[in-house]
Amino acid sequence: MRTILAATDGSESADRAVYFGAALARSCQAKLVLASIAAFESGIDIDTGFKAMLESERITVGEFLENESRMVLAKVRPRAEKICGAAVATVIRAGEAADTIIRLARDYDDPVIVVGRRGRGQLAGLLLGSVSQKLVTHAPCPVLVVP
At what angle do helices 61-84 and 12-28 cross, to 10 degrees? Predict the structure, then answer.
């Protein structure tokens, strides 16, 4: 394992996964990449007030979500670097979370994906969150799910 790809959505479970991934990267002398996916679940209506706020700020939903992803990564990166003992790469992608993480994993050499069991999504699986469940089922590499 040469790359630890720790995906986060800013939830407590995802934060634990990031920090576990940082410790794993340190112990395996692997590169740590923190990823945040600017994902919008299709079929969910955006509140009218929220739409008006975005329009008044002249930003799109995508730009808002990308900014949220930047803030999520900025929050966890310093501690991850301290745990890892090295600089940490960050990446933001747009798309459906699990599919985007799977595509992203293919960009790295010998990756392991580390995610939290449950994130902030509204629809979760019975035992695992829907993203972690899909990753475990479809990822082309090992997936470590942190409770």
Answer: 40
Residues 111 and 109: their CA atoms lie apart, in Å, by: 6
At residue 31, what are phi and psi to the nearest 5 degrees?
A: -75, 135
Q: Letter for the amino acid at 117?
A: R
The answer to whether the beta carbons of residues 88 and 22 sit under 8 Å apart is: yes
Distance between CA 81 and CA 62 in Å, rounded?
Answer: 28
pTM for the structure as a whole? 0.84
Of 3.40.50.620, 3.40.630.30, 3.20.20.210, 3.30.565.10, which CATH number belongs to 3-146? 3.40.50.620
DSSP character string of 81-110: HHHHTS--EEEEEES-HHHHHHHHHTTSSS
Residue 68 pLDDT exceeds 60:
yes
pLDDT at position 82 is: 98
Per-domain boundaries in the chain: 3-146
Contact 11, 122 (CB under 8 A): no
